[in-house]
Amino acid sequence: MNLARCLDTIDRLCSRPFPAEHGWSDVGRGGPGYYVAETAGWEAPDPDCAHGERTTDDVEAFREGVAQRLDDRWGARPPWAMLTLRVRAGRGEEIPEPWASVSALADDLRIWEATGTGRWVALGVARGDGSTPARLLTVVTEVDPE
Fold first, then answer.
1. How is the chain split into domains, by residue range?
2. Which one-letter DSSP state was computed for residue 54?
């Protein structure tokens, strides 16, 4: 995926209605108040990569490229570490979706409030486990991350 397509996906998710039920859509998982899309890393091996497949470093670099454009659009924010959510969940606190699922997949997120939409956008890298490649997770939700 290229930057322009990723940004277009984010824009579409910021303007379309959320699904009424939890399930899969054309971009990934979704449910009441959220989408979690895999916007890079899930495709076939990348012919533009010298080694043929995307590595975690490749996906993180792609995330930073998208993040720079979103910083320009909505303002820069510091990364949000997912460890706090994991600890809170481990203590029995109920963490709302999509944050509960994403905190189990990514170590940190870059987050923006999408001005004028009432939605939040987050980017995180889900690391590969040997059987699946690293991938960029794009979250669009109306659920405040705080």
1. 3-141
2. -
Distance of CA 93 to the CA centre of its chain: 22
What pTM did the predictor assign? Answer: 0.87
- DSSP letters for 4-46: HHHHHHHHHHHHSPPPSSSEE-SSEEEETTEEEEEEES-SS--
User: Which amino acid appears at position 68 of this protein?
Assistant: Q
Q: What is the pLDDT of residues 5-32, one digit of tens each?
A: 899 999 999 999 999 999 998 888 999 9
Distance CA 70, CA 84 (A): 24
- Rounded to the nearest 10 degrees, the angle between the axes of helix 3-15 and helix 56-74 is 60
